[in-house]
Input
Amino acid sequence: MLDVPLWLWAAFAVTVVVSLAVDLLAHREAHVIGFKEAAAWSGVWVGLALVFGAVVFLVLGATPGVEYTTAWLLEKSLSVDNLFVFALIFAYFKVPRAYQHRVLFFGVMGALVFRGIFLAAGVAVVSRFTAVLFAFAAVLFYSTYKILKEEEDSFDPGKSIAVRLLRKVMPVRDEYAGMKFFVKEAGKRVATPLLAVVAAIEAADLVFAVDSVPAVLAVSDEAFIVYTSNAFAILGLRALYFLLAGLLDRFHYLSKGLALILSFIGVKLILQASHKMFSSSIPEIPSPISLAVIVTVLAVSVALSIRRPRPITPDLTAPGARDENGVAPGSTDEHSPAPKTRDTGDPPQHS
Output
């Protein structure tokens, strides 16, 4: 087990709490998060994660430092899938853009709690039952298959377990009430749609934890490394969403890159379990190689997405839309060939 000094745990906790407090105060008024503001906050979160990684290098050594960096980058890359689901949830509930940051703030707080529980359970199980790594590898291979076959699970925010439980506990009104989660109607306390959105966000994070937790446990089985790396990746998730909002479709090769990363981590898990259970002669994949693979795959995926943009398919149902020949649907263009008629072989009739 890694000998982590108590003051380092305390420094991590203080950093997270202070960061969340500053973020909440900076966004206490509802407003639309623009690109420049999102870029600035993304820089802050990435900077904090890297500074903490440098502290891990200096205090705990090179190997824990590389494992932390690898786990943070892996979680950061896997969180891109979360962004698509966030966009789906916001569209489903018609969340005003000015309220989206508040929703994600509370979603992040819930994710920090639940990820901590899942990771602690995962570390405890792996330390006692090494064979569970094979099951984790199977989960990652199945996720790879779904991504490559484009068989993503259909996520209906309105039918998620969390939202259904919320509606059973208390009534949920149809209209938003600013950034309030509860209002009183006829003397009764009712929830606003904003609370239902937070519940849907939390439910989505639980789904993504199925991939995320096994993947990060392949990098390290040290509770400090896996949780701190996850926490810093999750903290920057809101800013990353607003930074990439509207640009997600441009990085169309990124999903294929994530599939490759998941399959690579699955192989790493199998080798790791085989090394521990069967023979020490079976090689394990070192963390520096894992870090190099993840960085390379992400860089190539982004570069290919920019170099080979997705072809734009015109929407022929939109007003003023035209097909590839420049002709509006349902219209007859004088330059287009006249419609052909069937030749019956009869002579023309004259009246």
